């Protein structure tokens, strides 16, 4: 694409595609210049060379595949041999243009998908997101850094006192400036939203050496080694000469990796130092992420010996006690299992106590108002559950309790509903209403099983369509062995025991 100068009509008529989250994060890194020497997504020649030698086709060392897959029908009109007919517009999830891609290489990858490679350039009115002043490209940040050594730290969790002590020690070791790189492309390992993570890091700023803080769209690949290699490359692009390793000590040609020390709190003088230097009776080890979450869930203040008060305030705001935090209660089971009846009973009890704002998403009501037009194919069933999961997560995002009771026969769709709730900062409780098929058929209030057995209805869950029994249910109930009131009590008692209700509704 000669100089990237294209007629407006070429850009206007070009096909568009919203990349998947990992690809979108890579695209943003490419546009920022955070993956030098890459200027776009890699093609077949580079990928084949990397697999053989760890280098690009031109001999440049490069360790991590940076690729894009696009549905076949989207790229069907593109012609890699014609610069005016190989433009693909890449958008954000809402459809706003982010970049133009010069599709110089297109090849089939998986069923219905093609790899697309070529340089990218920014398009549209720019990206959006919180903390725009911290989302700065590497060249701007390098210009701000002092001469000499720079300690890079990838901060994907809040900085408690042990982590702050690690950073201070590493900075003293290399006698250099500190560069904190905060990933903002996905929730952190502990589920905190990127914006909350940034706020918690800023809250700890006065507890650390002089530091430059930058927000970067880094997203994990699900591979510890590749993640470490990519992070090292990005840290080097931003000017880090050393990197405090949280995972594998792999640099891949990037900054020198520093291994963190094992620290503990010394009760004699309130300092954090090497654990082996502290007598056992005076030693306090750092709290684990699970222990921190448990304290927050129960509304117990984080101890000041472990967490600076300003950081604790941010975490408490983001993760209030469970009894005031939103939660999705997702009941799944066969038609006639009693899901809706139990859900309505729970809603009635909570309406009496006024303890929770309740949103009831019953299967039949949802089909009429939210998923009208959908059939009962696997794709439509999954779409129905995803829609329910999205609405439930939004209700829970604002502190409500969402009760859902679709059949939801497929594990993948249920997992999506759980992910949506967690992404909204809410809890998720999966209740399997495991009433046997024979009992459900005896009830058959709608006559669906009878029609399915007579061949008048196809795609009936439990008859000619499978129900994938949950292996991750938080609670299992069977309404053939207990009555509805007992089932409602079981669910309410579970919610109370897990902290989602402040006091037992009676």
Automatic annotation (TrEMBL):
Q: Is the tRNA-binding keyword given for this protein?
A: no
Q: Where is the ATP-sulfurylase PUA-like domain?
A: 17-109
Which residue stretches, if any, does this entry annotate as coiled coil? none
Assigned EC number? 2.7.1.25
Q: Which keywords does this Swiss-Prot/TrEMBL entry list?
A: ATP-binding, Kinase, Nucleotide-binding, Nucleotidyltransferase, Transferase
Molecular functions per Gene Ontology: kinase activity; nucleotidyltransferase activity
User: One Pfam match, by short name?
Assistant: APS_kinase
Top enzyme class: transferase
Q: Which InterPro entries match?
A: APS, APS_kinase_dom, ATP-Sase_PUA-like_dom, P-loop_NTPase, PUA-like_sf, Rossmann-like_a/b/a_fold, Sulf_AdTrans/APS_kinase
Q: Which residues form the APS kinase domain?
A: 325-478
What is the catalytic activity of this protein? adenosine 5'-phosphosulfate + ATP = 3'-phosphoadenylyl sulfate + ADP + H(+)
Q: What is this protein called?
A: adenylyl-sulfate kinase
Source organism:
Luedemannella helvata
